[in-house]
Structures are given as C-alpha cells and as structure tokens.
C-alpha cells in the first residue's frame, strides 16, 4: 500500500469531514464512521476521490470498507 496515496486520501478525509476527522486520525486506522464521518462527509469523500483519481469507491461495500486502508486498496485496485 502506497504511503503517499494513503496520505493524500487522509487529507481528503479531513477536507470531506470539514476537519471532524483529522488526517492523523484517519491514518491511525479504524472506522472512519466511528471517528465522525457522516453521510454528507462520505458523499464528499466519494466525490473528491472520483475527481482526483477518476475512480469510484463504495464506502458501504462490506465490513471495514470505511477504513482508510480499505479505501486505499479500492483506489489502488481501480487505478
């Protein structure tokens, strides 16, 4: 897993949640929803990933799909 990609995605999480979830919290692991990612933030994050990387991700695609590691894997697989 690319540390650079994870770092960029963590920054997108921070922006999508308007600071509720920091990049450091996202990088530490665990459920982004448990950290404060709400439905509006999830939509913002999905849109930001699509705009920046040209790939679509599904944050509800199975258990653990809302972790930064899972999102990073989804983006890497679709690049």
Automatic annotation (TrEMBL):
Segments forming domain Carrier: 3-79
Record's keyword annotation contains Transport: no
Superkingdom, natural source: Bacteria
Pfam families from the UniProt entry: PP-binding
Alphabetical keyword list: Phosphopantetheine, Phosphoprotein
Annotated protein name in UniProt: Carrier domain-containing protein
Source organism of this protein record: Catellatospora bangladeshensis
Lineage: Bacteria, Bacillati, Actinomycetota, Actinomycetes, Micromonosporales
């Amino acid at each position: 897993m690319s540390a650079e990609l994870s770092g960029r995605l963590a920054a997108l999480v921070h922006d999508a949640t308007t600071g509720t979830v920091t990049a450091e919290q996202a990088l530490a692991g665990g459920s982004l929803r448990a950290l404060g990612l709400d439905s509006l933030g999830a939509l913002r994050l999905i849109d930001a990933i699509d705009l920046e990387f040209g790939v679509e991700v599904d944050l509800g695609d199975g258990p653990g799909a809302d972790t930064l590691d899972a999102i990073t894997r989804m983006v890497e697989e679709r690049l």
